[in-house]
Amino acid sequence: MRVAGAAVALIAALALSGPALAAHIGDRFASELRVVPDPVTGVLLRFLTSAPAGDSKIYPTHPQWTADGKWVIFRSRRVPGQAFAVNEESGDIVQVTETGYTGMLSVSRKSMRLFFMRRDDHGRPSAATPRGTAELPLGPMQIVAIDLENVFADSAAGKMKRPSEYEQVFGTIPAEFGDGHELAIDADEKTAYFRLMRATAAKHLPAGTQVESNFGPRSMGAGPTGIGAMDLATGALRVVVAVPFQVGHIQSNPFVSGEIVFCWETGGKAPQRTWTVRADGTGLRPLFPESPFDWVTHEAIITRDEVAVAVMGHRPPGTNDAWGPAGTREHPTGMFIVNLRTREIQGLGQTPSGSGLWHVHGSPDGRWATADDFARNLYLIDRRTNERLLLSTGHKVTAQDHVHPTFSPDGTKIEIQSAMLSADGRSMNICIVPVPLEWLRTRPAR
Fold first, then answer.
1. What is the pTM of this model?
2. Nearest to 59 by CA among 249, 246, 189, 195
3. Which of 382, 437, 434 shows the shortest CA–CA distance to 408?
């Protein structure tokens, strides 16, 4: 039931106090909507959350908006280990899980559903695991979907049912098969992809494959791992591909069924960062073929045929350390777009100084690109002209995480996470940054 005024504020405050408070699917929290002019660019920033509740957005490799375009799914410590949705228009915040989740949240683009993994013995919620986490014995994992449409309707009516009434459990991944740290849903929503455990991957490596050791100073990247799949109709499991290195950032093409992009995760520079493979295990190949001096990172599928990547230019010329000679501007750096069909690569430029472009994304219609940098600045790029605009700044380098921009499906706005409003300079909120109206108007290419 919706509670008004001071009672709502009290519930919200208690929810932030920790896991001792009973919290349930469908619980509602007071709107925190705030519109704040950017201190430098003047762009009106629409903060969907503004309390110091430890919010964070889904990673840019995955959808953020629900299929109806009205809600943004996010993670938060306002109820530890649970997922939330915020209505972009009203500011209503609704808790959309109750039994916890592990790893990646995957929002459906076709239906009002939220997919995730959770421990099969889900007696208590499990906190979301950080990206890049090494293989851990998490135990058997269920793949689950939440019926968001009914959660929102029943929550608004104040007539919630048992959590199981909103859940569909597709099957369980045994502990020896999958590790629970990655989840992507195929475009046809008939298959889920996840990371394999090393022992399982080792059994499926091609004969004679040399297994890679850790690469770089963060002691990450060793294999073998791979990608597994679950048939969501039957729960049947299979191996898609095994590779001799640590797999990360598994993402499915949301526009083309059966197409997967993933990375060699080292926590930094990899010998060959980006990869693609078909869901039947064929077509395994590097996506952005790289040299020892290329520091490639943060790949994200942005259109039916394209993947955005950042080639870092954040280190002084002549650097050659535990990461190798990569990441300097002695060679081309910046944001690049890789065509999955033609394999052609298009450069979209680089910042003149500083770290350079870092986390990258683009609009599904191919018109816009966006990226952040180490200083938490947000840039907009017109792909027709390569014109670059500093869109927003002031998001505090002390923030707990990076800006991580993601374009909306309609290409008119960008979701970020920001510490701009936080008194401690660390706690983050969910923020929507519009593409300026003058840029949305059709302009002739140069």
1. 0.91
2. 249
3. 434
